[in-house]
């Protein structure tokens, strides 16, 4: 950015007629502050912490998002208590799998982008608009993704216009794709999605959706070493959050713990989890 304005203490670009995108503002006036421009080029992929498994599923009246708490660095556990499910704004949540440092930067930039838009336009961005904005943030990281520093977010929210919960998935190029009913991303996603395929019903209650999410993460942790299951001894449980017409609500550790402990007790009797009916 240019030097400070002597009278007002801020660079003059802050007093020009702006636009609704904070990312575009940074790209025009201070591109070095964008995460994509602050990652040094590397001759080979760096061994950095990676988040693993996240998922989302809809239910009548909302959408629930969940994630395990583990991040791995190579074959080591880098973090045991990473929260991969974050508030986007009042009516959306974002979760991530991939390079942890870049993912957290992207989430913060996405949050600022939504807040900036609402301040400039005096109305919140629509949910499809939020999905496109998040896609632009992911697309800006394509160079780093091709070096092995990929981030794959998952967006879930309540569509105020349509009156329903919606889920958007992404690839490393930032293309948003709306998915129906449920979706999982990360290294344990094949196992989590397989569990949800058997457990999901269109008439799930919120409580049932939360149990299904934890069951799916348990299956992912059972078969994927990079995904962390409920850690009862350390009291580390999956991250859970729900978005409804009333807004975003993160589950407390106590509530997540109650659900996780019930799932673990059930698995003591049936290690492979619930059995889907054949008819």
UniProtKB/TrEMBL annotation:
One of the protein's GO biological processes: proteasomal protein catabolic process
Gene Ontology MF terms: threonine-type endopeptidase activity
Enzyme Commission identifier(s): 3.4.25.1
Database matches in PROSITE patterns: PROTEASOME_BETA_2
Compartments it resides in: Cytoplasm
Residue span(s) of the pro-peptide: 1-51
Pathway info: Protein degradation; proteasomal Pup-dependent pathway
Catalysis: reaction(s): Cleavage of peptide bonds with very broad specificity
GO cellular component, one term: cytoplasm
Main location, first listed in the record: cytoplasm
InterPro entries from the UniProt entry: Ntn_hydrolases_N (IPR029055), Pept_T1A_subB (IPR000243), Proteasome_sua/b (IPR001353), Proteasome_suB-type (IPR023333), PSB_actinobac (IPR022483)
Active site, UniProt feature: 52 (nucleophile)
UniProt keyword annotations, A-Z: Autocatalytic cleavage, Cytoplasm, Hydrolase, Protease, Proteasome, Threonine protease, Zymogen
Sequence intervals crossing the membrane: none
Activity: how regulated: The formation of the proteasomal ATPase ARC-20S proteasome complex, likely via the docking of the C-termini of ARC into the intersubunit pockets in the alpha-rings, may trigger opening of the gate for substrate entry. Interconversion between the open-gate and close-gate conformations leads to a dynamic regulation of the 20S proteasome proteolysis activity.
Coiled-coil segments on the chain, per record: none
Physiological role: Component of the proteasome core, a large protease complex with broad specificity involved in protein degradation.
Family affiliation: Belongs to the peptidase T1B family.
Quaternary structure, from the entry: The 20S proteasome core is composed of 14 alpha and 14 beta subunits that assemble into four stacked heptameric rings, resulting in a barrel-shaped structure. The two inner rings, each composed of seven catalytic beta subunits, are sandwiched by two outer rings, each composed of seven alpha subunits. The catalytic chamber with the active sites is on the inside of the barrel. Has a gated structure, the ends of the cylinder being occluded by the N-termini of the alpha-subunits. Is capped by the proteasome-associated ATPase, ARC.
Protein name: Proteasome subunit beta
């Amino acid at each position: 950015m240019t030097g400070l304005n002597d009278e007002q203490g801020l660079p003059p670009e802050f007093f020009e007629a702006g636009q609704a995108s904070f990312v575009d503002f940074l790209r025009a006036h201070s591109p070095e502050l964008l995460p994509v421009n602050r990652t040094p080029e590397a001759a080979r992929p760096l061994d950095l912490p990676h988040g693993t498994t996240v998922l989302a599923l809809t239910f009548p009246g909302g959408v629930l998002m969940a994630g395990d708490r583990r991040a791995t660095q190579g074959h080591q556990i880098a973090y045991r208590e990473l929260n991969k499910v974050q508030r986007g704004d009042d009516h959306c949540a974002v979760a991530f799998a991939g390079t942890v440092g870049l993912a957290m930067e992207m989430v913060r930039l996405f949050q600022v982008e939504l807040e900036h838009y609402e301040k400039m336009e005096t109305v919140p961005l629509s949910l499809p608009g939020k999905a496109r904005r998040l896609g632009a943030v992911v697309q800006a990281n394509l160079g780093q993704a091709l070096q092995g520093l990929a981030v794959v977010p998952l967006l879930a929210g309540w569509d105020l216009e349509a009156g329903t919960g919606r889920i958007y998935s992404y690839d490393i190029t930032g293309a948003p794709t709306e998915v129906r009913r449920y979706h999982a991303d990360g290294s344990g996603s094949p196992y989590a999605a397989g569990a949800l395929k058997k457990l999901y019903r269109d008439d799930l209650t919120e409580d049932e959706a939360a149990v299904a999410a934890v069951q799916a993460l348990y299956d992912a942790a059972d078969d994927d070493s990079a995904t962390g299951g409920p850690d009862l001894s350390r009291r580390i449980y999956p991250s859970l959050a729900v978005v409804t017409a009333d807004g975003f609500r993160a589950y407390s550790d106590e509530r997540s713990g109650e659900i996780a402990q019930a799932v673990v007790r059930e698995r003591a009797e049936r290690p492979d989890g619930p059995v889907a009916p054949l008819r």
